[in-house]
Design a protein that fits this description.
Blueprint lengths: L5 H8 L4 H7 L4 H8 L1 H14 L3 E7 L2 E6 L7 E3 L10 E3 L7 E4 L5 E5 L4 E4 L14 E11 L4 E11 L5 E10 L4 E5 L4 E2 L7 E4 L2 E8 L7 E7 L4 E5 L8 E7 L2 E7 L5 E6 L8 E7 L10 E6 L5 E6 L3 E6 L4 E4 L10 E6 L23 H9 L1 H11 L12
Antiparallel strand pairs: 1-2, 1-25, 2-3, 4-5, 5-6, 6-7, 8-9, 9-10, 10-11, 12-14, 13-14, 14-15, 15-16, 17-18, 18-19, 19-20, 21-22, 22-23, 23-24
Length: 401
């Protein structure tokens, strides 16, 4: 039989969905090492983002998770949840690089990859209260990929309010997946009046709406936290003023939703990140197209890009037709109800050092002569694999299952 080079095998495998790759890890030790290697994981994820494939919606409701492929949005698939004793949890918005983070009833923070079912409970972090009497603490979280250091970060911002609910101080911490530890960063001099969850990542930064200074009123700005530099900054927005403002992400573009109460919302997208003049109004949704709503967030375009999938009131999904300016329900089989929905990209990203694979040797394990001979025969392939993805043996204590 003709054999293919590892370059061709790696290229073909990088185009497959995650579910197929998880099964193909059982083909051989060589394939397992290739699929588990950091280089392959990054290549597969990068290709998925560039081609807008392997994209799904994760839906949460009453301690359960379901996944909804955008290619087959009519059928939901249950996700095995690693924690069994949760009365409730909240999905938090990460970047499009596939991991989710959530809270349990005791405020335990964890990272979870729905594709691999791997999770990591983050170290507990104490709160340093200001010395100014009784305070109310409000917390907010963001999740970002640090492309500069090839790391995943969790941002925690705390606001301390006095008895009059006035913000008197704030604190910011960043968790590094590589070091598995928290670090303190300079506080952000912005207040978050509406407690909006930080939107998914765009250009190495996560975003939210804030006001300048620790005051109740003020001009609302788009606050960005850059994962690479660990700094806060402001992204320019259009001059138009709205009563209600929130930010989101739509297919890699920063998105602003501006409304006047619960009946009318303008949806804007920033075509060129950081350029004020690039803000473009995508559509306006208002009666009689829809009734009153509390939550409206864009999730994804349809394949033909003629419609936008929206999360409506955290109760159902709807399609908005950009040409007809009309909406229709997006019924989903296998989903009794929903309370939140977020987009993610399916990937093989691990939670033990950003892709590093560790397999412990079994005690008393002895290598037979037959295995030694097989290993010698694979010498040429190992050399090629090392050239492609680095030496997997340096990342594994053992490649044996």
């Amino acid at each position: 039989m003709p054999t293919f080079s590892l370059e061709i095998i790696a290229d073909v495998l990088s185009r497959l969905p995650v579910k197929s790759l998880l099964r193909l890890r059982c083909v051989s030790h060589l394939w397992r090492a290739l699929i588990d290697s950091p280089h392959f994981i990054k290549t597969h994820l990068s290709r998925s983002i560039q081609t807008n494939t392997n994209t799904a919606v994760v839906i949460g409701e009453r301690g359960t998770l379901h996944s909804l492929d955008l290619d087959s949005i009519d059928q939901a698939t249950p996700i095995t949840f690693p924690f069994k004793y949760y009365d409730s949890f909240h999905l938090r918005r990460p970047n499009p690089r596939t991991l989710r983070h959530f809270f349990g009833p005791i405020r335990t923070l964890a990272l979870f990859n729905p594709s691999t079912r791997k999770y990591l409970v983050l170290p507990a972090l104490d709160v340093l209260y200001p010395n100014c009497g009784p305070v109310t603490v409000l917390d907010d979280y963001g999740f970002a990929y640090d492309a500069i250091n090839d790391d995943y970060n969790v941002l925690r911002v705390l606001e301390f309010r006095d008895w009059n609910y006035k913000c008197i101080d704030s604190e910011a911490r960043v968790f590094s997946l590589k070091s598995n530890s928290w670090s303190r960063i300079p506080s952000c001099a912005y207040r978050y009046p509406d407690r909006k969850i930080w939107a998914r990542q765009v250009k190495n930064a996560v975003h939210t709406i804030g006001t300048k200074g620790f005051i109740r009123e003020g001009d609302r700005v788009i606050v960005a936290f850059k994962a690479g530099t660990k700094e806060f900054s402001v992204v320019p927005k259009m001059e138009k003023c709205y009563t209600d403002v929130s930010v989101d992400v739509l297919e890699g573009c920063l998105c602003l939703l501006g409304g006047y109460g619960q009946y009318c919302t303008d949806v804007w997208v920033m075509r060129d990140y950081g350029v004020k003049e690039s803000w473009t109004r995508l559509f306006t949704i208002a009666p009689p197209v829809v009734g009153a709503y509390r939550i409206l967030s864009p999730l994804a375009y349809s394949r033909c890009r003629g419609e936008v999938l929206l999360n409506f009131n955290d109760k159902k999904l709807i399609w908005y037709d950009l040409r007809k300016k009309s909406v229709r329900d997006a019924p989903v089989r296998g989903l009794p109800s929903m309370c939140s929905a977020e987009v993610y990209v399916k990937s093989l990203v691990l939670l033990d050092g950003c892709g590093k694979v560790e397999v412990k040797k079994q005690k008393g394990q002895v290598q037979t002569e037959e295995k030694k001979n097989k290993k010698k025969k694979r010498g040429v392939k190992w050399a090629t694999l090392k050239a492609l993805v680095g030496d997997p043996r340096a990342e594994c204590e053992s490649l044996r299952a």
